[in-house]
Amino acid sequence: MNKYTLTDRLILAFSRVEPAGLSPKMPGTCGSAVAILLAPFVFMPLDFVWRAILLALLFVLGGLAAGRAEQLLGEKDPGCVVIDEVLGQWLTCLPFAALGWWEYLAAFALFRLFDISKPWPIRASENWLPGGFGVMLDDALAGLYAMLGLWGIRLLIF
């Protein structure tokens, strides 16, 4: 018998961005890859206001789901929870009206760089909010760093 309720299974699927979070190697990178591949079709067609609203909803729902996933899986910030990567990756793209393929690639690389290296204050931010909201916050900050990096690259090239 499955130990999880249907609701818990749905929460785990959402927080894992299934099947990305179930990858045996580098689930965070897989979650980021799914997010950046979906961005041109799901996120970027929305105008700025709707993208911002979607990110706010993703932060709240992702924070709730990540917190519940921590409880269900019995660990803090489980590696399989990658909804935070979607938030951070899409936040990287937020202010841009349109991006070319190389900019999506740069957005992906920059976000992964900041998410993995966690420069100040990203690492500290994991503990600023309770439960799943701390999980989401550090990726939001990594996304902001990556956004600024992408903005800088675009200014240098254009």
Strand content: under 5%
Mean pLDDT figure: 93
**What would you call the quaternary organization?**
single chain
- Helix-strand sequence: HHHHHHH
The class by helix and strand makeup works out as: mainly alpha
The low-pLDDT segments are none
Number of domains: 1
**Terminal-residue CA separation:** 58 Å
Helicity range: over 70%
What is the overall number of helices?
Answer: 7
Output the radius of gyration. Answer: 15 Å
Describe the sheet with the most strands. none
Q: What would you call the shape?
A: globular
The count of strands amounts to 0
Describe the structure.
The protein is mostly helical and 158 residues long. It has one domain (6-157). Helices cover 72% and strands 0% of the residues. The protein has seven helices and no strands. It has helices at 6-16, 27-43, 48-73, 83-93, 101-117, 122-125, 131-157. The model has no long low-confidence stretch (mean pLDDT 93).
Could you name the key traits of this structure?
7 helices; single chain; globular; 72% helix; mainly alpha; 158 residues
State the gist of this model.
With 158 residues, the protein is an all-alpha fold.
